[in-house]
Structures are given as C-alpha cells and as structure tokens.
C-alpha cells in the first residue's frame, strides 16, 4: 500500500491572535511538530499545504516533504489541494498543523486497520480524532467539499469507517490560544521522534 501524508497549515488562526503555526513550542515552530508526526507515519511522502510566507522548514532524508502554497485559507481548498497532490496513492493521512501532540505510533495502527474501509481514524470516548487516513476511494468525494468544510460530513455518512479505539487524549488536542502552548510546554506533552 502506497500512502501519503498531508499536513493542513493554510489557516490564519484568528483565535490565536498571531502566527500560530510559527509560534515556538520546545524551541521550534508549532508546524514542525505536525510535520514530524506526518513523517513518522508509514508514508512515501509528506505534502504540506500552507499559505504564502509561512516557514515550513527544510527537511532532508525520507520521506520527502513537498510544500503547496495557497492563497485560499478555506479548509476544503487546502484538503482538495493536498488530495490532488496525493493522486496515485492508495490513501492519504490528514494531519492538522495545529496538533503538535498527535501520537507518532497512531498512523501505523491506522494503516494496519484500514483494509478495504473508506477511512480509518482514532477514537477516544466516542469522539473521533486525528490523524485521519482516507482511502483512495474517498478522494473523489473530497472534491465535493466547499468552504471551511473538512471530511467530517463524509465520514459520518459512511458505515465503512474503521476506528482505532484509543486512550491517548492527544488525538484531540489542538492549539487554539497562546496559553495552550504554555500548558503543553509545562506538561512536556509533545512527542519527539
């Protein structure tokens, strides 16, 4: 199975009040933590979809990191651009740039779980989390999304979505405000691989 990872990082983070993805956590920009989690997944390449001007870093080694820059910050446009770049893959993980604590081992569990399912994702206490692994069968449906819509509606409408019942709360934690970074730093909650 050939898989890609997409890191969505094109938003402007209005609740954060400044450049959220460029804000530092443990000595590096928040976005770098998400890229590192995507690179830890069982993928052949990582596609970062971002806005112009955001530092995405320089990544050597494998898997390679490709960057797509969009003027649009709509979630659907970012996801569509990432999926288009992943064409030819059997599936694509979707990581969010503001989720620095996603457990690195979760993607491998999802890859083993997906089988012939439409998608696979972690779930804790009945709530789905990230990353999400979309099969190639989902790619055409992504093209129908509009505005700030992600894949959630599509996933809820399907009965062939596989779930990894997970106990780690990090599958839900996203950074919305500067104090979230302070809390993370004080707890030492990020994973580094």
What's the short version?
It holds the Pfam family NTP_transf_3. The protein has 193 residues and is α/β, with parallel strands linked by helices.
Structural account:
- The chain is of the alpha/beta class and 193 residues long.
- The protein has one domain: Spore Coat Polysaccharide Biosynthesis Protein SpsA, Chain A (Alpha-Beta Complex), CATH 3.90.550.
- It has six helices and ten strands; from the N terminus they run βββαββαβαβββααβα.
- Residues 5-160 form the MobA-like NTP transferase domain.
- Keywords: Magnesium.
- This is Nucleotidyltransferase family protein.
Question: How are the elements arranged and paired?
Answer:
Layout: E1 3-9, E2 24-25, E3 28-29, H1 30-40, E4 45-50, E5 65-69, H2 75-85, E6 91-96, H3 106-113, E7 119-124, E8 127-128, E9 132-135, H4 139-142, H5 152-156, E10 161-165, H6 178-187
End-to-end separation in angstroms reads 23 Å
What's the CATH first level?
A: Alpha Beta
- Helix and strand run: EEEHEEHEHEEEHHEH
By DSSP, the count of extended strands is 10
Radius of gyration: 15 Å
Number of helices: 6
CATH architecture: Alpha-Beta Complex
Largest sheet: 8 strands, mixed
Question: CATH H-level name... which superfamily?
Answer: Spore Coat Polysaccharide Biosynthesis Protein SpsA, Chain A
Content of β-strand? 15-25%
Shape: globular
CATH fold description: Spore Coat Polysaccharide Biosynthesis Protein SpsA, Chain A
Low-confidence spans? 189-193
Share of residues in helices: 25-40%
Organism: Novosphingobium mangrovi
Keywords: Magnesium
Domain MobA-like NTP transferase: 5-160
Protein name: Nucleotidyltransferase family protein
């Amino acid at each position: 199975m050939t898989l890609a990872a997409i890191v969505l990082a094109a938003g402007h983070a209005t609740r954060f009040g400044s450049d959220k993805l460029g804000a530092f956590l443990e000595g590096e920009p928040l976005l770098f933590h998400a890229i590192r989690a995507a690179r830890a997944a069982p993928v052949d390449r990582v596609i970062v979809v971002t806005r112009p001007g955001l530092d995405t870093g320089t990544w050597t080694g494998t898997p390679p990191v490709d960057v797509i820059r969009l003027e649009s910050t709509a979630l659907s446009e970012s996801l569509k651009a990432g999926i288009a770049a992943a064409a030819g893959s059997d599936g694509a993980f979707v990581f969010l740039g503001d989720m620095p604590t996603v457990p690195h081992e979760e993607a491998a569990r999802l890859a083993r779980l997906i089988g012939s399912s439409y998608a696979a994702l972690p779930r804790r206490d009945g709530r789905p989390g990230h990353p999400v692994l979309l099969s190639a069968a989902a790619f055409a449906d992504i093209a129908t999304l509009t505005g700030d819509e992600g894949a959630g509606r599509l996933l809820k409408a399907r009965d062939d979505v596989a779930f990894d019942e997970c106990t780690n709360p990090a599958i839900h934690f996203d950074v919305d405000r500067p104090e979230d970074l302070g809390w993370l730093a004080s707890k030492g909650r990020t994973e580094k691989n």
